[in-house]
């Protein structure tokens, strides 16, 4: 069974996270698609802190003696999942940055070539006059 003190800390932490998520979403500092995972984690934490017997049942079912150890196990697993999804998003962003950088390089080269062609045409006109 989770101690009452830990239960209060978990409830307060989950409520604080909800306030933080709402604040970040309202100021457009966090996109909704990224916040869904965090909202799921906070809701799960809130439910498990209100109904600790459910948490005790899961920990006993997995053969974990203390629910606190199960809490750490699930927390680490959740953080690994969040880290993995963040790594995927960073990889996508890096690939997009690379593609955009290459496009900018091609566009700069095209602008330089057009500029040279324009100068040559204007010089030809000056020579013909």
From TrEMBL:
<keyword id="KW-0812">Transmembrane</keyword>
<keyword id="KW-0175">Coiled coil</keyword>
<feature type="transmembrane region" description="Helical">
    <location>
        <begin position="70"/>
        <end position="88"/>
    </location>
</feature>
<feature type="transmembrane region" description="Helical">
    <location>
        <begin position="37"/>
        <end position="58"/>
    </location>
</feature>
<keyword id="KW-1133">Transmembrane helix</keyword>
<feature type="transmembrane region" description="Helical">
    <location>
        <begin position="6"/>
        <end position="25"/>
    </location>
</feature>
<dbReference type="InterPro" id="IPR019277">
    <property type="entry name" value="DUF2304"/>
</dbReference>
<dbReference type="Pfam" id="PF10066">
    <property type="entry name" value="DUF2304"/>
</dbReference>
<protein>
    <recommendedName>
        <fullName>DUF2304 domain-containing protein</fullName>
    </recommendedName>
</protein>
<keyword id="KW-0472">Membrane</keyword>
<feature type="coiled-coil region">
    <location>
        <begin position="90"/>
        <end position="117"/>
    </location>
</feature>
